Amino acid sequence: MPVPKGDADPRHPFSVSPTTMPIALGTKAPDFTLKSAAADGLKDVRLSDNFGKRQTLLLFFPLAFTGVCTQEMCSVTGGLGDYAGLNAEVYGISVDSPFAQRAWAKESKIEVTLLSDLDKKVAKAYDVLFPGLSGIGDTSARAAFVIGLDGTVLYAEQTATPKDLPNFTAIKAALAK
């Protein structure tokens, strides 16, 4: 029996379908300032600081210290040189605290700049809030956005489930245009 959109199937904890889709291509990316935990303390990272300088890849992920999220961020870490070659800054965004993100990055050798959306405002602004993940609360859905030099959305993808990874071939193609 199919699961209605937005309703959970108790047999499958990841079966909640998002009720909104990510923001549309060609729209102005919602600007934000989020905290990142660096070796020397917390710092503010503002999306619009990249405008006119480099493209930005935003990778929303549900939670630190989970299998698929660790796989994704470790894989992206291994390819950071490719993204730099495409004139792109890469940010991973989750609803975890910056301190949890820092501990996870250290433990898993993640070098992607991780940004804390603890209050979920950025996930809401990008229409990628995932309701009730496994009964523990709202998180970011797994999603990817390429933001151009002018601040417009050039690529937007929200995966069907939190277990699915974004299409990194399509992401790199969007960055290469």
Distance between the termini: 42 Å
**Poorly predicted spans:** 1-20
Can you list the strand order of the major beta sheet? Answer: 5-4-3-8-9
The largest sheet is: 5 strands, mixed
Proportion of strand residues: 15-25%
* Structural shape: globular
List the helices and strands and how they pair.
Layout: E1 33-38, E2 41-46, E3 55-60, H1 67-78, H2 80-85, E4 88-94, H3 98-108, E5 113-116, H4 121-125, E6 129-130, E7 139-140, E8 143-147, E9 153-158, H5 168-176
Parallel strand pairs: 3-4, 4-5
Antiparallel strand pairs: 1-2, 3-8, 6-7, 8-9
Keywords:
globular, disordered N terminus, 177 residues, alpha/beta, five-stranded mixed beta sheet, Glutaredoxin
Give an account of the 3D structure.
The protein has helices at residues 67-78, 80-85, 98-108, 121-125, 168-176; strands at residues 33-38, 41-46, 55-60, 88-94, 113-116, 129-130, 139-140, 143-147, 153-158. The chain has 177 residues and is α/β, with parallel strands linked by helices. It has a five-stranded mixed β-sheet with strand order 5-4-3-8-9. It has a two-stranded antiparallel sheet with strand order 1-2. A hairpin with an 8-residue loop joins strand 6 (129-130) and strand 7 (139-140). The termini are far apart.
Question: In brief, what are we looking at here?
Answer:
This protein is α/β, with parallel strands linked by helices and 177 residues long. It has helices at residues 67-78, 80-85, 98-108, 121-125, 168-176, and strands at 33-38, 41-46, 55-60, 88-94, 113-116, 129-130, 139-140, 143-147, 153-158. The protein contains 5 helices and 9 strands.
